[in-house]
Amino acid sequence: MKITIGVLALQGDVREHSAALEQPDVQVISVRRRTELAQIDALVIPGGESTTISRLLDVFELREPIADRIKAGMPVYGSCAGMIMLANQVLDGHPDQRSLGGIDMVVRRNAFGRQIDSFETMLDMKGVTGSIPAVFIRAPWVESTGPDVEQLAVLESDEPSGDRIVAVRQGSLLATSFHPEITGDRQVHHYFVSMVREAVKEKS
Amino acid sequence: MWIQYDVKNTVYSSDKGPTVSENTNSTPGLTSENATVGTARVKRGMAEMLKGGVIMDVVTPEQAKIAEDAGAVAVMALERVPADIRVEGGVARMSDPDMIDGIINAVSIPVMAKARIGHFVEAQVLQSLGVDYVDESEVLTPADEAHHIDKFGFTVPFVCGATNLGEALRRIAEGAAMIRSKGEAGTGNVVEATRHMRSIRSEIRQLSVAGEEELYAAAKELRAPYELVAEVAKAGKLPVVLFTAGGIATPADAAMMMQLGAEGVFVGSGIFKSGDPAQRAAAIVKATTFHDDPDVIAQVSRGLGEAMVGLNVTELPASQRYAGRGW
What we know:
The structure holds 2 protein chains of 2 kinds.
Chain A: E1 3-8, H1 14-21, E2 26-31, H2 34-37, E3 42-45, H3 50-59, H4 63-71, E4 76-79, H5 81-86, E5 87-91, E6 103-108, E7 119-124, E8 131-136, E9 141-145, E10 150-155, E11 164-170, E12 173-176, H6 187-203
Parallel strand pairs in A: 1-2, 1-3, 3-4, 4-12, 5-6
Antiparallel strand pairs in A: 6-9, 7-8, 10-11, 11-12
Chain B: E1 36-37, H1 40-48, E2 54-58, H2 61-70, E3 74-77, H3 82-88, H4 97-106, E4 111-116, H5 120-129, E5 133-137, E6 158-162, H6 165-173, E7 178-181, H7 191-208, H8 214-222, H9 226-235, E8 241-244, H10 251-259, E9 265-267, H11 269-272, H12 277-289, H13 294-300
Parallel strand pairs in B: 2-3, 2-9, 3-4, 4-5, 5-6, 6-7, 7-8
Helix pairs in contact in B: 2-4, 2-12, 7-9, 8-9, 10-12
C-alpha cells in the first residue's frame, strides 16, 4: 500500500527531508495548505527556525488542523526545530512562540549554544543499527520526559544535570535534536517510515 | 535531487575546528570524544536551516526584535544600512561590538554580522563575539584588494556575495559555506539581483549539460577549481545554499528571486527604510514562503505604505557600485 508523507514546507531544510524519505511505497509531498494536510498519512517537521515556523503556522492557519491531526494519532517526525514544535513545553523560546505539542517532554531551545558551538558526532540510537552521524546545529536538548516517552539516544555529559537526551519517541511521534537529513545516512528516516507503515496498517 | 554531504571525500572540506573536549566552554559538559565543531557539514548545514527564510538588516536591538516578530530566520547586525552608507560615504567598517552584543542579547534567532572583504581580524572579532554567521561583504569598504579571508581557519561559517558562478566557486574554494547573489545593495532596485541570480543559475545549467571533457575548459573560463566545477556539473546546483541580496524592496521582489532559483532572501535597506517596517517585513516573509502563489503575494502586498525610495543603478558612478568589489 502506498503511503503519503508530507514535509511541512513553511521554512527550513524541506528538500533534504523529502529526499531522505524516498522509498518505493512512499509518496512525499510538501505541505503548506490545509488541502495538502488532508492528503497525508504522516508529517515531517523539518529543521529550520522554530520562531519563524511557529509564526507562519498561525499566519496560514495551519496550527489547529495539524494539532488536531497529532491528537488523532497521525505519525510525526520533527528534527531540531521540529523537535521544539512537538514538545509540550519549551524553555528559552520567544515569548510569542507556541509549540504544537504532542510529546510529553520539556525541550530547551538552543541548549547546546550558538553556531560556533554546533558540532557533529557519531551517535548510538535505539531502533537503528550501529552508530549514525549526527549533526547538531544550534540544537535543542530534551530537559525531561514524562513516563510514556521512550528515550532513544543520549549524549554523555559530565555535568551534574546528567546526560543529554537527544532523541525520543512517544507512540507515533518521533523527535531528534540533530539533523540526520543532511548526513546522507537514512536510518532515522527508515525508522520513521516503518512507524508510519505500522500506523497506517493499524488504521486500515 | 539529493546531494550527499560526503565531507570526507570533498577536497574543500574543513575539519580544522577544535574538538569539543578541548573547548569546554562551547558545549556544556559534553564528553563525547569525537564531537567536532566547525566542520563543513556543520557550517553548510546551518545555512540549510535558513532556507525559505528572510534575513533582515538591523542597526538596533529594537529593529532586531521587529524583525524577529515578523518571522525573520536571522538578522544581520550592522551599523548603517547600505542606503545610509551610500548617502554618508566614508569608510564602512565592521560594527561596534557593543551594538552587536546588544542585538545578540535582544533576539533568540541567529545573528549575522559583516566584515570587510579580506579583513580577517574583523572576522576574528565577530567570531569571538559569538555571531552565528560572518558576511564577508562588498557593502563595507574592502580591506584587501587581492585576497579574500581564508575562511577555513574559522569555526564560524561565512556567507559571501557573488555576481556569477565563477565568483561563487572561488568563494566556496576559500571556505564560504553559503553564497548570496550580490545585487546592488542600498538601491531598492532589484535589477542587479535579477542579473546575478540569472547569471549563476544559467551558468549552472550550462555546466550540467556539458560533456566531462568540457569541464576542464569550463574551470579555466570560470577561474574556479576543477573539482568544484565537476561537483556543480554533477549535482546541478551549488554545493552550498544560494540566497539572494541587494535591492529587494517588495514582497513581489522577494518572490521573483525565489522563482528565479534563490533558496532564501536577504533584505537590507528595503525594510527599515520603508514607511511601515513591521508590516513590510511580515509581508516579505509570507511572500517568500508562498513565492509560487500569486494570490498570496497579491494579498500580502496590499496597504504596505511607502516602499523605500529607489535608485537607478545605471545612474550610479562605477565607484559607487558595490557589486564590483571582490573578484
